[in-house]
Specification:
Elements: H1 2-61, H2 71-77, H3 80-83, H4 102-111, H5 122-131, H6 150-153, H7 156-167
Helix pairs in contact: 4-5, 5-7
Bound molecules: heme C (HEC).
């Protein structure tokens, strides 16, 4: 029995020692991993944040149209045609916004007693409608649907072309 017991004890000791070595080994491994991991994660995070910032900055800075495009392209690229029916622009369908007939309507808006914007001329009215849509809400249409950021997204050239085009559109009775 004793002869059997000894190897048994010896085995237990071996198991404990091996077990301890394993624990120490795993602990060391864990330490090494911990030391490397945060740096990797931080680097990843910084890269991600930079990517996101880049996207935001790029999106905000790139104009929707340079103004050199043909007028129909400007209307489509700027999204106007998605909400407005614009006579002469093939894809423009009537959706959320009023039909754009500013050759007739700019005058009417300025004469409306409900008009409290800053425009004095028809040109200014159209410009204001695009850059500050909240200045006057066309009756029967919702406020805050037309984007408010066109001032940052349209070049002066594109804006001029848009206004010139829109002021030429008379209402067809
Ligand atoms: C998401 C939909 C939407 C988009 C995109 C949009 N608009 Fe509008 N727009 C509206 C709505 C709704 C109104 C009416 C409410 C108001 O007066 O703000 C309006 C009003 C206007 C008016 C005044 C019309 C009038 O008869 O007095 C003009 C001009 C105009 N938009 C031009 C544009 C131009 C140019 C673009 C593109 C650069 C554009 N809109 C993009 C929804 C939109």
């Amino acid at each position: 029995m004793a002869a059997h017991k000894k190897p048994g004890q010896w085995n237990k000791e071996t198991i404990i020692i091996v077990g301890l070595m394993c624990v120490v080994f795993l602990w060391t491994l864990n330490r090494v991993e911990l030391e490397n991991k945060p740096q990797e994660e931080t680097a990843d995070k910084i890269e991600k944040t930079q990517d996101e910032a880049k996207q935001v900055v790029e999106k905000a800075l790139v104009p929707l149209a340079t103004g050199k495009e043909p007028i129909d392209k400007i209307f489509v690229q700027s999204g106007c045609a998605a909400c407005h029916m614009i006579p002469g622009i093939r894809v423009a369908k009537d959706r959320e916004g009023p039909k754009l007939e500013l050759g007739t309507n700019a005058r009417r808006r300025l004469a409306d007693p409900n008009y409290h914007g800053n425009a004095k001329t028809e040109w200014e009215y159209v410009q204001e409608s695009i850059l500050n849509p909240g200045a006057y809400i066309v009756q029967g249409y919702p406020d805050r649907v037309m984007p408010r950021w066109y001032g940052q997204k349209l070049t002066a050239g594109a804006l001029d072309k848009i206004i010139t085009y829109l002021l030429k559109i008379e209402e067809v009775p």
